Amino acid sequence: MARILSIQSHVVSGYVGNRAATFPLQLLGHEVDVINTVQFSNHTGYNAVRGDRFSASHVLDLFDGLQTNGLDAYTHLLTGYMGNSDNVRAVECIAQKLKHKLPQLTFVVDPVLGDDGALYVPRELIALYRDVLCPLATLVTPNQFEAELLTNTKITSLDTAKSACDELHRIGVPNVVITSAVLDSASGDHTLHLIGSELCLESGAKHQFAIAFPRLSGYYTGTGDLFAALLLAHYATLAPQFAALGALARACELATATLAGIMQATKLHQESTLVNVASNLPRGSRPNTMVRGFELRIIPSRHLISNPTPSFQSFSI
Prior knowledge:
Layout: E1 3-11, H1 17-27, E2 31-40, E3 51-53, H2 56-68, E4 76-79, H3 85-101, E5 106-109, E6 114-115, E7 118-119, H4 124-133, E8 139-140, H5 144-151, H6 158-171, E9 175-181, E10 191-199, E11 206-214, H7 223-238, H8 247-272, H9 288-293, H10 302-306, E12 315-316
Parallel strand pairs: 1-2, 1-4, 4-5, 5-8, 8-9
Antiparallel strand pairs: 2-3, 6-7, 9-10, 10-11, 11-12
Helix pairs in contact: 1-7, 2-3, 3-4, 4-5, 5-6, 7-8
């Protein structure tokens, strides 16, 4: 059982950030404490959002309380949406303190920068993630756009995805998972690829792999947060069982199976609402009734979390 500190966003209603991560981690047998970088009424896909963004001093003050009371015996650190440079620096400080206490700490960084060619955060965070958090990380989980930003590599094929992974290895990250990428191929944009790469820092041995899975139409939010949590949960369990490389690929198979199942359940639920889904609607213009229909069906799909059946197999690249 892992003891996990998760630092990311929080919403009152819906499933993104810590709301998407906590229940799956707990259901898979791990202890989870959370620090929220924001508390919003709902995610930003809705037409209105209320709530507050928390300062770095708030994040550090909460961690100081944990540390003062001896409640900081964490084996894993998971980070998601930071929103500003000060919070990235706060996470750097927390990671360093946790690593000082437990040098073998597993630090999973989901570098939430943007998606589909659009930044969600100030551009200055790109360099901070690359130069500050990535060198401290055990595992990073960027999407295609984020991986391109972090490595200055245009990802159009498995070979260019491997090059992006290699650049993140060069920065100091032993485990990389590009969670979803549209590649130039005969399948067009109907198929997504996950690309993973694990590097043994001692021997230099490396295992690079990919998983192909269908792309579902719709407006899903929180899938990256959910995937990072699922991957951490499975990797924490599997890593001690593998004497050599291989744990990351198996963890990705399990996490992908659960995520694909939950997304399919979400799609079926949205269709049952009979709310029309128009294409290419920007954030802020999507009807709230439609957005609500796409809230991830995490609780009704708990069986898919606790007992995943891998339906998409990894292959070496």
